[in-house]
Write a structure and sequence with these properties.
Blueprint (H helix, E strand, L loop, with lengths): L1 E8 L6 E9 L6 H30 L3 H9 L1 E5 L4 E5 L10 H9 E2 L2 E2 L1 H6 L4 E2 L8 E7 L12 E6 L6 E2 L2 E2 L3 H24 L4
Antiparallel strand pairs: 1-2, 2-4, 3-4, 5-11, 6-10, 7-8, 8-9
Helix pairs in contact: 1-5, 2-3
């Protein structure tokens, strides 16, 4: 009677789009019915998926500030061909929060902090050091639950230092949850539409 196609677009590494489209057998709906009903169906499916996505984010993100930015990244698009939910950090109103919002969904790979530390002009030359290596002093202030104000520690970074690896961080990947949500609920919405057009006795 009908086939549902759900696909995830990851062609842009900084955003993700989940889309749904439906194909009906020729004897199920007339061209007039399709033209009249499909735009509303796709808008309804997209809105339901966005609501579900926002609900999942509310359960997963503890920071209200980050949650607000995450929800701003979500938008829907629909026409008579398909419906889509798009997560795009560029939609976040505060440009300083877009990177953090993207990491929340996609995560980040580990990387070496040392090149960035030494790229700054705030590095010094140790004339007493025979190797004469440029260095930078980095303050470390780790706040723990038992000691909210621990003393600041300092560490010296030079070109000879071992790398300072920022750890890998796993993203939430809520887009995957939305994909499964549509798999479970889209056919029920389609059946509701058909029952409305052709009500049973």
């Amino acid at each position: 009677m009908s086939d549902v196609f759900i696909y995830e677009d990851l062609s842009d590494p900084n955003k993700v789009s989940i889309s749904v489209s439906v194909s009906f057998a020729e004897d199920v709906l007339s061209a007039e019915d399709l033209e009249r009903e499909l735009p509303g169906l796709y808008k309804e499916l997209s809105t339901a998926a966005k609501d579900f996505w926002e609900s999942q984010a509310g359960r997963s993100i503890q920071s209200s500030r980050r949650l607000q930015g995450y929800r701003q990244a979500l938008q829907i698009e629909s026409d008579d061909q398909s419906g889509s939910v798009i997560f795009d950090p560029d939609n976040v109103s505060d440009p300083n929060r877009r990177h953090a919002v993207g990491i929340t969904e996609f995560g980040t790979s580990g990387f070496d902090l040392k090149p960035g530390f030494l790229r700054t002009t705030k590095k010094y030359q140790n004339l007493k050091n025979k190797k004469n290596l440029p260095y930078r002093i980095i303050p470390l202030h780790a706040i723990g639950p038992k000691d909210p104000s621990p003393p600041v520690e300092f560490r010296v970074v030079t070109t000879a230092s071992s790398g300072w690896m920022y750890p890998y961080r796993k993203g939430l990947d809520l887009a995957g949850d939305v994909f499964r949500f549509w798999e479970q609920h889209s056919k029920a919405k389609i059946q509701e539409m058909l029952d409305r057009i052709y009500p049973t006795e």
